Amino acid sequence: MGKLKNKVAIITGAASGIGKAQALLFAKEEAKVVVVDLNLDGIQDTVSEIKAKGGQAIGVQANLTNDDDISNLVEKVISEYGEISILLNTAGLFDQYKSLLNTDESLWNKMLDVNITSLYKITSKVLPHMLEKKFGVIVNIASGAGLIAGGGGIGYTSTKHAVIGFTKQLNFDYGTQGIRANAIAPGLIETPMVKAVIDDPNSGVMDAVSKLPAGRYGQPGEVADLSLFLASDDSRYIYGAVVPIDGGLLSTLR
Ligand SMILES: NC(=O)c1ccc[n+]([C@@H]2O[C@H](COP(=O)([O-])OP(=O)(O)OC[C@H]3O[C@@H](n4cnc5c(N)ncnc54)[C@H](O)[C@@H]3O)[C@@H](O)[C@H]2O)c1
């Protein structure tokens, strides 16, 4: 039997990269997957791949910065499946390492809106349904940039630090009511988000990657495997943790 049988999992950012890998794996483990993203073509691709492999999924296009889109999403999931057991907050935006003086207020606001306020918005709408069942698992995708400087620019680093605080406080406030939230801090993972960085011979990133204990960057499926562990009962005593998956990056910093 699949590890997530009878669970309903909303996965944001599931049209691409890490979110797509999570959606495919969660469906394989028999979750009913809700594929959420801005990108409609990508949503359709993910849903079709899941269905072609015999899994269950619906796609919902939503801008996670928009209250109406989120209300419609949650209503649709409740009317379709009657409950929400798992929320993977995976969608996010990178700022291409822009420093403070290269970050105008519109980029700053966009980073806040997509990377942290969206978590506030969607989790606020999902949490009451979880509390009603006294069960809910939340996995937030933070970043190594949520723990140290240099993994992004000022907007990315600030918002990813905020994702970690958000995760810990959720546990503090709701852990005793059946809600379990953890964060993942990936290092460099090969997805469209960081393709330009990986492909740029002058970025210095590949030099740093070659010096990692793992000697390579990570794959979306590896983050999906960790997400499955954190979303399943196998991690039932893990609350409010920030789990790095970075080929050893954090462990080697002096
Ligand atoms: N790839 C990496 O190296 C890396 C490292 C650390 C953390 N992360 C984090 O992992 C998460 C997934 O990133 P990825 O690498 O798979 O990137 P990606 O660009 O492949 O996927 C991100 C997805 O989020 C969606 N999205 C963005 N804004 C949205 C919005 N307002 N509403 C709905 N959907 C929206 C995009 O359409 C896209 O499909 C992000 O939170 C990112 O910050 C990635």
From TrEMBL:
Q: Does the keyword Oxidoreductase apply?
A: yes
A Pfam family annotated for this UniProt entry: adh_short_C2
The alphabetical list of record keywords is:
Oxidoreductase
State one molecular function term (GO): oxidoreductase activity
What is the native source organism of this protein? Epilithonimonas hungarica
| Source organism superkingdom | Bacteria
Which protein family is named in the record? Belongs to the short-chain dehydrogenases/reductases (SDR) family.
User: What Gene3D superfamilies does the record tag this protein with?
Assistant: NAD(P)-binding Rossmann-like Domain
Is-annotated flag, keyword Oxidoreductase?
yes
Designated name of the protein: 3-oxoacyl-[acyl-carrier protein] reductase
